[in-house]
């Protein structure tokens, strides 16, 4: 078929078994540790189940198609496993430029590696394009000699919108400049999903996902993925996954693909709910709302230009930690829990995590808006806010 499928079709149709009589519509879960190899000279595709598993293939193919990657994706045991592998792309002693606000596990892991001397870490405000470019240029000048030919002396790590501040980076400009500078770039696309944002199309070298979130979508599995169109980088990431050994179980990957089938519908409803709630919340006196979909939000123009929607994460800033904690305790439909991207709505005060940067306000509450009826979500939030404010 020459007609290119829309993402809504890709999530449903990609990665199906070949159409033969009596073929099952879904791939089976292949439970094996090893694969029969009859001829030494022509080893099979998998060999051993730490290297590959047929259950991974349709999921990896579907994600690559969605992100526009020229090569199959790589599934990892968790988002952080994919992130750890991608961070290892930087040369020993190189520099990783990271967002000052980002997924906490990524920041904590990078800080630990930096403390152990693996690389230097330079935190930047990713919304400040000039600051990011200056950091990249400085790092490249310092570290050029370390490059192995892949551009790995410096690695630009991006998240947009960022967790939990929802800052929006100018992805087309930053990724194009990273390419001009000859440095690696990685984008954590978990918040946006490939439905709303395609970093590889802006020149990113690698995209990583916590598939735990919108991709699997039901808060029942922990899973990650990395996507790239570069053979050299895919080989390194594949090697890291195989040799470090933290691979995904076949059942989890099967669940990931099963969840992906409805991702377009879920994301559409969740972000529609998020937009309605953000607008209603912005009329409540005494709180600040952050959501790139609001016309007054600092990230609005950029998000409108580079995204296909504004996502389903909304943040509220209450005056202090006590009020924020009170809010998360008074809701009845929203679930107080960390994580995001599931069908159900979650609420969390982010500074309850000790290592969350102190530039994140004490009273910041992150809402992961789910697919429930928006009026029920609003009624619950409103009664809780009324009791708090
Ligand atoms: C949850 C999350 C991760 C980590 O993924 P896990 O699957 O929990 O390991 C990474 N990045 C972002 C943006 C996330 O939300």
UniProtKB/TrEMBL annotation:
This protein's UniProt keywords: Aminotransferase, Pyridoxal phosphate, Transferase
A GO MF label: transaminase activity
Pfam families, per database record: Cys_Met_Meta_PP (PF01053)
CC cofactor: pyridoxal 5'-phosphate
Keyword Hydrolase recorded: no
UniProt superkingdom: Bacteria
Family the entry assigns: Belongs to the trans-sulfuration enzymes family.
Protein name (database record): Aminotransferase class I/II-fold pyridoxal phosphate-dependent enzyme
Source organism phylogeny: Bacteria, Bacillati, Actinomycetota, Actinomycetes, Micrococcales
